[in-house]
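Protein: Putative 4-hydroxy-4-methyl-2-oxoglutarate aldolase
Species: Cognatiyoonia koreensis
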Amino acid sequence: MIEDPRLLSIREGFARPTAKQVAAFRDVPTGFVCDAMDGRGGMGTAISPLLDAHIVGCAIVAENGPEGNLATLGAVHIMQAGDVIIAAMRGGQTVAAAGDMVLAMIRNKGGAGFVTDGPMRDLTGIRDVGLPAWCSGLNPNSPYATGPGRVGYGASVGGQTVESGDIIVADENGVVVVPHAQIDTVIARLDAVRAAEISLEAKVKAGFSEQAKIVEMLADGRAVIED
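Structure follows.
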């Protein structure tokens, strides 16, 4: 028999990205970031933006239960300016992870944005607050601040493992997680990704459409055209 867990556990001593590392992702499309991570890193399609925006910041993971928000409130308590709160709901879709008032508190502390794998509510108010948010949809039901919950650790969100201290990049296409240990490697690859994208875009605008790989596959028999 185990003892009941603490209602809330908070860890503040996780490694944070430097301001220079965060700045390296400013205005970088999420697609470029994924390309720099071998085409991976994006959260599941269900997590989509409520407002059109591009953000980048340090992840503060709030691990809630499927109907709770105590960890989210704890994350607001310890967050720093520029952070992105990641509210994990353990797959819960029956209550809103947050509404306009929680987002207003995050904005008031200088937060960059809010991401959850659960729904949200108070859309009109959220638009007035103006803080970028990504979620699975909308639901008017209220969460309970009863715990248990953990802040400053990690959680699975949208098919990605997110640790506090990772970098979050999010835009109209979705949310990407850059693991803390890979930040410098991903930054080093971004220039090559940009160059390849610019080159291909120029070719396509000039009329390019040939698919060399398909031509090669047809030539060597790996692909066939059937009548």
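Remarks: The chain has seven helices and eleven strands.
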